Amino acid sequence: MPARDPFYIATPIFYVNDVPHIGHAYTEVSADALARWHRQGGDDTWLLTGTDEHGEKILRTARANGVTPKEWTDKLVESAWTPLLETVDIANDDFIRTTDERHEVAVTRFIQKLYDDGHIYAGEYEGYYCVGCEEYKQKDDLVEATEGEFAGQLVCAIHSRPVEILKEKNYFFRMSAFQDRLLALYEQADFIQPESVRNEIVSFVRQGLSDLSISRSSFDWGIRVPWDESHVIYVWVDALLNYISAIGYGAEPGSAENEEFARRWPAVQLVGKDIARFHAVIWPAMLMAADLPVPKRVFGHGWLLVGGEKMSKSKLTGIAPHQITDTFGSDAFRYYFLRAITFGQDGSFSWEDLSARYQAELANGFGNLASRVTAMITRYRDGRIPDVSTVELAEADGAILATIERANAGADTAIDRLALGEALAAIWELVDELNGYITEQEPWALSKDEANAERLDAVLATAARGVGALAVLLSPFTPKASAKLWAALGGEGAVQDADVRDAANWRGSGQVTPLESPLFPRIEVEAASAPGGA
Ligand code: ME8
């Protein structure tokens, strides 16, 4: 088989003006499930995430809290943003902060190169700016507020707050020069996904690209422009560069770090659709100017909606991830958001839907199946998975083996398309069919008569293969439950080292023991509907 390309996937780096909510956690678990799948398939995988710490928004928040911006970001990163990774069980390979020295060095080098190569000029910006978005706005991007404290005023359509009017001497990037190359790039299949996001970007760029102001001179919380220290680099230009600064761009040429950059770049970029424009327009234009490869793909996932609105802290619809994981656990969090929302579309969150899926699909579906199979092998065969190489299998057994193959192949191709929900749906066909198979085959009845010993062997071996395959296939999605099941099945080594593309061939040779506790314990409905009093 030809060697597969390294798989480098990055999440956006998040603003640390506030604590994370489940929208941020959703991006994290999506990227993490994809990374875990590739890692478990033996690909040279790298998952990057981190925090975006410069700019006016953070500066103002820090001032409002009476601390320096660095004190503020240190505190939030430590108390809220790195703990998020544990809350939802993210196996990231690196965590970049834009205040890291390695990042500042790389940004300085990059911007100096663009300046030296004639892509940057001095000018004056006069227009709107939304500090919430950290974005220069056109009049068309604003709406007139119809109610509330800003009624009658022009406000940012996303933040519903008035924008600033800026008049500043700034440096500009000649982004307009890249318009045709960008439009040609969008013709490449898969560069921007899904189609709805691609169409929006294409029509935006076709309207004509302006040059981009890439520095600010009215405050100093940022990375200095190297040839003019009275400016700091615009926070988005600074932030986008994290994807290459973290893997060694900017390190000494020939150094190990710099070689890592050459090997890993370009990345698959997973972002919310709110920031797809930055990633599909500004970012590739910057890379083209620096003669570097553009990202492999930019995928703009949908929004989590609460009460029909995009969830956000500023509108007080934010839900903290731990409010869910404290009651349901991190596996259920991961499973629910990846399964219930078609990746790429918006999706509504509700406690009722979460509880219902937890009960039906995780507790009664996967969890119960895992308990039944491990308990029966322990009870009827002293924990040895029967060897059925000489036993003739029945049609029903063959059908399960075919479903295992289908689930494995179906999940793998879905993952290649970043269709996380489809991957889980393919795997759940196996969960459901295997549960039905056990109910129909009634191993408990077969066990009562020695004459059925061979039949019982075939059923238990088939069920074990299915459950073993599930432990492997679900490990990227529900790593804790998979590890518990793997241990009960006597699986060799750690489940996250079992090749996910070869799950269908697992047969198992270790000692099976019953699960010590259910994979997904029953949760009282009352507690489930309003954890933490939310
Ligand atoms: O934009 N539904 O950071 P940010 C789904 N620092 N995803 C959501 C969401 C929701 N309701 N709300 C937030 C920034 N997200 C910049 C990025 S990258 C170089 C710089 C997720 O803290 C989603 O991934 O505002 C969205 O794109 C991101 O959080 C915005 O995070």
Automatic annotation (TrEMBL):
Stretches assigned to the Methionyl/Valyl/Leucyl/Isoleucyl-tRNA synthetase anticodon-binding domain: 398-501
CDD domains hit by this protein: Anticodon_Ia_Met, MetRS_core
Main subcellular location: cytoplasm
Domain Methionyl/Leucyl tRNA synthetase: 8-373
Keyword Flavoprotein recorded: no
One Pfam family in the UniProt entry: Anticodon_1
Keyword set includes Thylakoid: no
Sequence motif 'KMSKS' region, location on chain: 310-314
Signal peptide residues on this chain, from the entry's feature table: none
Compartment(s) of residence: Cytoplasm
Entry keyword set: Aminoacyl-tRNA synthetase, ATP-binding, Cytoplasm, Ligase, Metal-binding, Nucleotide-binding, Protein biosynthesis, Zinc
Cofactor note: Binds 1 zinc ion per subunit.
Catalytic activity field: tRNA(Met) + L-methionine + ATP = L-methionyl-tRNA(Met) + AMP + diphosphate
Binding site for Zn(2+): C130, C133, C156, H159
One GO CC annotation: cytoplasm
EC number of the protein: 6.1.1.10
HAMAP family, A to Z: Met_tRNA_synth_type2
UniProt xrefs under PANTHER family: METHIONINE--TRNA LIGASE, MITOCHONDRIAL (PTHR43326:SF1), METHIONYL-TRNA SYNTHETASE (PTHR43326)
Free-text function comment from the UniProt entry: Is required not only for elongation of protein synthesis but also for the initiation of all mRNA translation through initiator tRNA(fMet) aminoacylation.
Assembly, per entry: Monomer.
Protein's name according to its UniProt entry: Methionine--tRNA ligase
Annotated source species: Schumannella soli
